[in-house]
Design goal:
about 80% helix; 5 helices; mainly alpha; about 130 residues
Length: about 130
């Protein structure tokens, strides 16, 4: 693995950690003004970029593993963003005391992006 690949993973770790910290702060502030109404979707929205983004990229950087193509990274980052935004959206709806039919779109779109990531990884390995 080249140093540029390692640098890319380090940048991804910093980005995902920043997003996780932002989501945690956003959840704390939003729920502070929600009159003691809590939503687990809002509380744990930070976990998606932390567990699915920062940790895997840190492991890849430490192990020196190379991902076969950039497309897989883009699909994976898009899946993380979709799940995170969906969690915050659902949390806002829960705190507001409302429902919305569009809240089911986020998990479905995230799952499709995860499948596209896996397909992209498999296709990238077959080319090597």
């Amino acid at each position: 693995m080249s140093t540029s690949d390692n640098k890319k993973y380090q940048v991804q770790v910093v980005i995902h950690l920043s997003v996780a910290i932002f989501c945690a702060l956003f959840g704390v502030i939003y729920e502070k003004f929600s009159h003691n109404i809590y939503s687990y979707y809002m509380i744990y929205a930070f976990a998606v970029p932390l567990v699915c983004g920062a940790f895997p990229y840190a492991i890849l950087a430490l192990r020196g593993t190379r991902v076969p193509n950039e497309r897989a990274i883009r699909f994976w980052n898009s899946a993380i963003a979709t799940f995170t935004v969906g969690s915050v959206f659902r949390g806002v709806l829960d705190l507001y005391g409302s429902t919305n039919k569009l809240s089911v779109v986020y998990p479905i779109a995230g799952a499709v992006l995860v499948v596209l990531t896996i397909v992209s990884l498999i296709r990238g390995r077959k080319r090597d």
